[in-house]
Amino acid sequence: MASVFRSEEMCLSQLFLQVEAAYCCVAELGELGLVQFKDLNVNVNSFQRKFVNEVRRCESLERILRFLEDEMQNEIVPQLPERPPPTPLPREMIMLETLLEKLEEELQEANQNQQALKKSFLELTELKHLLKKTQDFFETETNLADDFFMEDTSGLLELRATPACVTGKLGFTAGVINRERMASFERLLWRVCRGNIYLKFSEVDTILEDPVTKEEIKKNIFIIFYQGEQLRQKIKRICEGFRATIYPCPEPVGERREMLAGVNAKLEDLITVITQTESHRQRLLQEAAANWHSWAVKVQKMKAIYHILNMCNIDVTQQCAIAEIWFPVADTGRIKRALEQGMELSGSSMVPILTAVQSKAAPPTFNRTNKFTAGFQNIVDAYGVGSYREMNPGKGSDALNNGEA
Amino acid sequence: MLEGAEFYFNVDHGYLEGLVRGCKASLLTQQDYLNLVQCETLEDVKIHLQTTDYGNFLANQTNPLTVSKIDTEMRKKLCREFEYFRNHSLEPLSTFFTYMTCSYMIDNVILLMNGALQKKPVKEILAKCHPLGRFTEMEAVNIAETPSDLFKAVLVETPLAPFFQDCMSENTLDELNIELLRNKLYKSYLEAFYKFCKNHGDVTAEIMCPILEFEADRRAFIITLNSFGTELSKDDRETLYPTCGKLYPEGLRLLAQAEDFDQMRRVADHYGVYKPLFEAVGDGSGGKTLEDVFYEREVQMNVLAFNRQFHYGVFYAYTKLKEQEMRNIVWIAECISQRHRTKINSYIPIL
């Protein structure tokens, strides 16, 4: 039945371990989850502790795992193993390191290839749309030519029957720019060129994919007509500034049609190559997904063990590690068994020694919970963790009423 | 503005003031600096910073760790916090934030123009620009040849437009003129900011005006110091001094006539605030430079800004203190990475 006190009785002991056995014993205690270690090295800076290098190695493994997780993201779901994997031994860390580093390298290479391919795909798609649209621009201008130029507006818009403005009067620049920047681009062009240019733009109907961020981007096609070399330089620099890509667009209709055909052929080739690289990348990610969860848990366990070992007092001369732990008195047997198991696993001969220590400090409050009661205990703790062994008022009122203990 | 800010301030700005005070509480303490100074490598610096509010900000950096990576990540963090404050602010706090970003914008514009002069690629310079001073037309700055071009084409839509009144001239932009342009822009900016704070009144004016006055006088002293031995004429020099400080008008006139450090010191001796600062300056090597002394005074004023409530100065003070902390960390990291530890303790302690 429930006791008079709310939390369990705790005792403080000093634990003497052999240095080789320390890792395995701490691992076994960790699996039990019944022990709180006191930090014996409070005055030591975090970067001067003994196992700093191992913690650093675990952190770089975690970085690689995070990178893999980002890559897998929405495409693949890592499989959850049925049971959490056992704590790995220190020598397994080297194996994990080589494995994860190799995987990271391969994946980064695959990503780079894919990005380069997608970039050229994007450029060719943009060029294709540009060629189609400039066809429309030039054709509408020829329709206007008859009545539009009745007045003698010389200089700017002398388009002739042939759509080409090639006879030295007007040059043109054609390119593609992000839709968000279109407005300020137009305004800046107007101001810098003092209105001496003619800009026409239209939207690209299909949505394009950015090679690096994999987000959808919307673009506009623009074509600028101008006169003179200075304006061309200015326009070129403004386009560079706004990150608009300029494409060389040939003027005669025949050349444009040829270019369009060439672009379409290249696009088809690229699509096949892209699908192949994508499937290679997916294969790599599937490999990673199969084991990702167990690797993550293993690395987390290793890092936790090294953090705990940092808290212990390692006495090199006597080859032993000293730790101070709080644990519930009721579990003394289980803890002793766990320590013996750890000692066997590491193959050391010295039995870990547990000695009780008196202390005036307030012991930690420990409430034994299971999967069901843990939720309720969390709610209670959110209002404030109870003090050690506080009285259980419910039990007391029973005693008052019935005289039962 | 109505007196009695305590009645109205929290309605619009209370959340942000609470947030910025929380951020200020997580600035590095003297104990943190003592620990950092004991680090042997940059990896140790990274491990120690994990225990502070910076947390795992360097977690995704691959080896080897360099000082510039640390600086970029710290700056990104400050930028995120600043953008959060700015996005959640209402008027007139939003205008206040815009004024704060103007100084970074001026620096970015000058950086881009210098880069254009030296024909460096735009992307390289963009990487060096301060993220808080970003604006959309930034990349097009290099096409301008003269200041009036620059204004009419590029900057007329940015918040920097009103500061260009005194700078419109047809001189082409070469190196000396770019520096003059920077100082003139900054002078107009500082005076406009000062007027804004003063017109706002209330606690904000009480806190911000002394800080901006000190900033103006500090610039006057530094301009004077930098112009010794150059071709800058005395009249030109006087036009560069901001007029919103304590030195205006007699001090500025005397400063314009000064020809060496001692004459400058004698001008400062007339003012009770600046006399002890100049006395603390060591001579030659060893001891503090004038800039160090000015930084210390700035830090002092910014820390005191947190003793009053219900004003906008806390945001300004927090940004400046965070920048000083970043300068400190970069100084310590440089000393560690170059193994030149003699001057490692010359950072400026904040709290």
From TrEMBL, chain A:
Coiled coil residues, start to end: 93-127
Major localization class: membrane
Which molecular-function annotation in GO is an example for this chain? ATPase binding
Localization annotation = Membrane
Q: Which GO terms describe its cellular component?
A: plasma membrane; proton-transporting V-type ATPase, V0 domain; vacuolar proton-transporting V-type ATPase complex
Keyword field: Coiled coil, Hydrogen ion transport, Ion transport, Membrane, Transmembrane, Transmembrane helix, Transport
Give the record's GO biological process terms. Answer: vacuolar acidification
Q: Does the keyword Cell cycle apply?
A: no
InterPro entries in UniProt: V-ATPase_116kDa_su
The annotated topology with respect to the bilayer is: Multi-pass membrane protein
Give the highest taxon in the source lineage.
Answer: Eukaryota
Q: Belongs to which family?
A: Belongs to the V-ATPase 116 kDa subunit family.
Role played: Essential component of the vacuolar proton pump (V-ATPase), a multimeric enzyme that catalyzes the translocation of protons across the membranes. Required for assembly and activity of the V-ATPase.
Q: What is this protein called?
A: V-type proton ATPase subunit a
**Organism of origin:** Leptonychotes weddellii (Weddell seal)
Automatic annotation (TrEMBL), chain B:
Task: Provide the Gene Ontology terms for cellular component.
Answer: endosome; proton-transporting V-type ATPase, V0 domain
Q: Which domain of life is it from?
A: Eukaryota
What is a single molecular function from GO for this protein? proton-transporting ATPase activity, rotational mechanism
TM spans, by residue? none
Check the record and name the Pfam families matching this protein: vATP-synt_AC39 (PF01992)
- Keywords of the record: Hydrogen ion transport, Ion transport, Transport
* Classification via InterPro entries: ATPase_csu/dsu_sf (IPR036079), ATPase_V0-cplx_csu/dsu (IPR002843), ATPase_V0-cplx_dsu (IPR016727), V-type_ATPase_csu/dsu (IPR035067), V-type_ATPase_csu/dsu_dom_3 (IPR044911)
Quaternary structure?
V-ATPase is a heteromultimeric enzyme made up of two complexes: the ATP-hydrolytic V1 complex and the proton translocation V0 complex. The V1 complex consists of three catalytic AB heterodimers that form a heterohexamer, three peripheral stalks each consisting of EG heterodimers, one central rotor including subunits D and F, and the regulatory subunits C and H. The proton translocation complex V0 consists of the proton transport subunit a, a ring of proteolipid subunits c9c'', rotary subunit d, subunits e and f, and the accessory subunits ATP6AP1/Ac45 and ATP6AP2/PRR.
Q: What does this protein do?
A: Subunit of the V0 complex of vacuolar(H+)-ATPase (V-ATPase), a multisubunit enzyme composed of a peripheral complex (V1) that hydrolyzes ATP and a membrane integral complex (V0) that translocates protons. V-ATPase is responsible for acidifying and maintaining the pH of intracellular compartments and in some cell types, is targeted to the plasma membrane, where it is responsible for acidifying the extracellular environment. May play a role in coupling of proton transport and ATP hydrolysis. Regulator of osteoclast fusion and bone formation.
Which family is this sequence assigned to? Belongs to the V-ATPase V0D/AC39 subunit family.
Provide the protein name.
Answer: V-type proton ATPase subunit
* Species for this entry: Leptonychotes weddellii
Source organism phylogeny: Eukaryota, Metazoa, Chordata, Craniata, Vertebrata
Gene that this sequence comes from: ATP6V0D2
